[in-house]
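Practice problem 4.
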């Protein structure tokens, strides 16, 4: 996985845009799509256009504050040995899941299954860009078979994505042996050490995140754990990270 260089001000503007009420649900998010794909839009050659579009935000841009444990978190992730469980990115809640048989969840048809919203797709791309800018090594990317989770994983651009029923929405838990089996499968992945000097990415669902880890986030949030055979669950909690947190970390530590 290569490292992307993006000017810190881009992450600053994106981070602050997320703070605008309703931003992630509306068209203003379209402005940030070029930042999530700097190579597609000409890399840094596109920066002047982006800065012009975001000029109002630049006038009030505030440097990201660095919490005392931010540097420790970034250093730990750069060293590898962690599992990052992401809840899939933002979805269109006007759509509903219609699972009548095994495999229905793989449909990317919004008439059959809830899909990512445009803002959700943009958010997934920005998170991936932030992780690459931070030079966080990723050795494996696993995803639920649900289209919204698999698309989130692919849009993050952190490596080849392998979908698996070991990460299952608990609303379809009966297809993998029930609640306890679904939670056991997820915990096994969280407890398994990743390849040396790398981290494992898992993209799944909020209900499974809560059941398996005891933690919960909004869509696109992540829980970071460290495999620990001495703990009750086989892993130890490290941090909860929001999309805004990833942008802030990239803004502060991305140039190191």
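Answer key:
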């Amino acid at each position: 996985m290569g490292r992307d260089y993006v000017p810190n001000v881009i992450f600053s503007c994106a981070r602050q845009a997320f703070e605008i009420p309703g931003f992630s649900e509306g068209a203003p998010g379209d402005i940030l799509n070029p930042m999530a794909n700097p190579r597609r839009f000409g890399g840094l050659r596109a920066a002047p256009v982006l800065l012009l579009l975001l000029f109002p935000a630049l006038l009030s841009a505030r440097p990201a504050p660095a919490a005392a444990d931010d540097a420790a978190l970034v250093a730990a992730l750069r060293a590898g040995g962690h599992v990052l469980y992401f809840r899939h990115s933002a979805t269109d809640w006007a759509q509903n899941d219609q699972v009548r048989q095994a495999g229905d969840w793989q449909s990317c048809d919004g008439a059959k299954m809830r899909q990512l919203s445009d803002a959700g797709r943009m958010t997934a791309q920005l998170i991936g860009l932030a992780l690459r800018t931070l030079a966080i090594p990723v050795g494996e990317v696993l995803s639920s078979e649900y289209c919204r989770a698999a698309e989130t994983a692919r849009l993050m651009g952190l490596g080849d994505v392998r979908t698996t029923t070991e990460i299952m929405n608990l609303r379809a838990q009966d297809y993998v042996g029930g609640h306890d089996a679904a939670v056991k499968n997820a915990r096994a992945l969280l407890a398994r050490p990743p390849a040396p000097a790398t981290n494992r990415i898992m993209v799944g669902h909020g209900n499974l995140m809560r059941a398996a880890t005891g933690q919960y986030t909004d869509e696109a949030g992540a829980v970071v754990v460290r495999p620990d055979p001495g703990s009750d669950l086989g892993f130890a909690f490290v941090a909860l990270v929001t999309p805004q947190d990833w942008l802030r970390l990239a803004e502060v530590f991305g140039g190191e």
